User: Fold these one by one.
Assistant:
Number 1:
Amino acid sequence: FQAEDGIRDVERSRGLGDVYKRQLETGQSIGANYIALGHNKDDLMETLFLNILFSRRISAMIPKQDLFDGLFYIIRPMILVDEDYTHRYAENRVFPMVNKECQYAGKTKREWIKQLISKMEQENPGIRKNIVRSLFHPKPDYLWGRYESIADKLLK
């Protein structure tokens, strides 16, 4: 997918793998096999929509994810906490805030999805809760995984 500025989103996220690699290496060097990440409910919804719209799959993040057959575990203790709440909490506790200094801040597909979800919530209050609740109630029989072998023929 090409953004308006001609740079592919994949190119923007290349450094992300390096970040995870450094986290795993640091964890290994100190003997830790659990790595806690600060993903929140907004990240969860945005990831779901990004995967559906740009990766052609229905998937999101899970609270606990094992890597390399249990050598490491990624945990997301704040996955059901609103991003706004974490900001307010940090401000009340006077935690230092880290500014996004990425040259692409505000120009990514994730930012576009964030704005889309906000607009949907303004027009239909409660939609954010419904998006998250839908992850707890999948209906696999109504998903098309079993038709994967004929997908190319059906979607020409």
Number 2:
Amino acid sequence: MEQVKRGFSWASGPQGDRHLPSLARAAQAIKDEGAVALLQIHDAGRMSDPRVIDWTPRSASDIPAERPNALQPRPMSQDEIMGSVAAFAAAARRAVQAGFDGVEIHGANTYLLQQFFSPHSNRREDDWGGDLQRRMRFPLAVARAVRRAVGDNVVVGYRFSPARSGKNRHHHRGHLRPRRCAMRTQSRLPAPVLARLQPRLAAR
């Protein structure tokens, strides 16, 4: 999507038109095997690998991830949030241009969209944080922008993980149980966007 949003040193994706030839080769290779070609698009947010970025990672708030040596992120500005929405849409449009049958928006595994959804990592007091409806505003804005960018005849999925596991499996106030979250999320996504639940991974 954008260099600022890369999470891993080995990651590649639709950050710009220069990636279209390699994306087209990947899409064709998948289709040659008789499979449907979908490209997952994501923004790592505060989970960005410091070896990849040379600046402070961005997130919903300034809450570090619960992992060793986690960097403290800075809250995204209004302009950065809207820029991220546009970047998701542009990435999806490039994926389809390269020949993919659709995209999956990665809103799980503690990446940026999950960081806005979670009341642990989203401590904002503006229109992008607070109650569930405002915490869902950014993920839903991304889903709607992606759907508009690719049209109605392209597969668009949304992957999310609302529950926490391990020592953090107890629900933080404001978290939803997986089934209830799946129903609420699916009802708010622009049709037709499919929600895929991944409940066993942490959502902090």
Number 3:
Amino acid sequence: MRRLVLFSIILISLLVLTTQDHAAAQDSTPTPTPVPGQIKPDYYYVHSSGLFSIPHLEGWDQTPAGQEEKADTPNSSYGRAGVVFKSTPDDGVIYVFAEKGPFSDYKAMRDLEKLYTKPFLDQVWVNYSSWTETTRRFSGNRFAIDFKVVFNNKTYLARQIARFESGSLVTLQLIVPDPNLTLLNRLDYALWSTIVFYPQEANTPVTWGSTLDSENEYFIKYPSDWAKTEGDPGSGSLIEGTLQGTHYTLTTKVDSGKSARIEKQARDVVTALHPDAKILAAQVQRNGSANGFVVSYSVPGTGSKAQSGVIILLNGINGKLYSADLLAAGADMNMLDTTDKTVPPEVAQIVSSFLIFPPLQLPFQGNDSAQADVIVPTDAR
């Protein structure tokens, strides 16, 4: 657990600061403006790991360093995904990240007190000349700490907010110049409650590749050494790669006016796609908020060996049928047979990662009040 904590605090420090300049940590030189800017969400940003989405604010740009995906090893159970946005006019920073892994030491929100100790916070703000904690607060599934920090003789206000969700830790860090408490509160109000965590994506390594269709609003992940060879938003995708020496193709598509609400409909979809298919098994599937079926099948291949496939069919609330068809060349197996050791474990991870994003309503423009919190004196820890 110590390794996990140290890994977290070092990354926070490196992403938010440098010893040169607070703004240089965001690869820019912002012009400080102590007047709150407009808080205007314009779309939902989805991290490439699929772990979370957050409203993007107009005028807040992703830093050139891009997204963050970290893991101890390529298939590690621990993973961290994050992104930093900055606003040049406001000299502000938004940093959101999610960590999945062994948080066995933390059973309840109050256990976060064990994490946010003075030694931990010394490392969080290691590149600042000084930091002072002003308040820490609990409110339901929300733990927040406010700070005043000094960098290059300039004082900033900062807030770090965290919650546990499905065994993972979701954190939002906000930094603005002092005096800009209004901006800090408005960012908090607009963003914290609208960060959406997708627990099913925690089943796959954060470093895997992914495809997001922004028009049809679906997402799927695949091993990092696979490649997307065809596809544009709205037109489906073709992804190819190998597992245990076998070539796989993953085809995604969306069909209007179709559904797979009963097993017969799901089987009919498979035989329409693969007329020579032999259905091996069919199961009800629920990925996120979408229901459907997952069907394994085999089709004749070249030579004596059949090809094996599994297709995920999810019903969208928009009258569309979303499908992800995974086909293994020259492999003879039932991909839904959990007792078959020849089925790579990555197959189940790909299946579980197929996600239709639920309707996401952008928040209203942030007002001047943050959420009500229970104030906890800083010495009560």
Number 4:
Amino acid sequence: MDNKTKKILLGAATVAALGVAGQPADAATTAVNMRGVIVQAVAVTQTRTLDFATMTETGAGTHAVSVADVSTPSASITVVAGTPNAGGFQVIGSTGYPIDLTIPAAATVTHTVTPANTMAVTGLQIRNAVSTQTGVAVSTSLAATTVTGFDVGGTLNIGAGQAPGVYTGTVVVTALYQ
């Protein structure tokens, strides 16, 4: 046997020995099942504007519109036109999955012509069929219809000598699956 053949046989024996030595004496395997569920994406749609109506002011004051459409202006505020009403929105998602809704405690409305003029809207509330929450999270589970309605109320803070004009703004309602 020549040197070349001896080297090949020695290399093969080394590989075989290492291969056997590298295997555990007792090995086991298993399969892990996998699963995924896709649910309908949560959607939030406005159904009504939180409307404080048209007012006059004879001094600083407030005008509260509750989630039940109850208008409560302070003594220096008079509603002269329109009907104040709570805002509304609906949440659409997959039946039976809990959803958290959040709303800030306050927002701002801005004069449409002179943006430097603003008013705060405080005490923002969300009402569903179960409860009314002020500026905090609300949890709900969607019913079989997959659409649940909510109301939004709040208090408009009007300054003495507030500039006349139209004021608009938004309040962000966030809906997330729990």
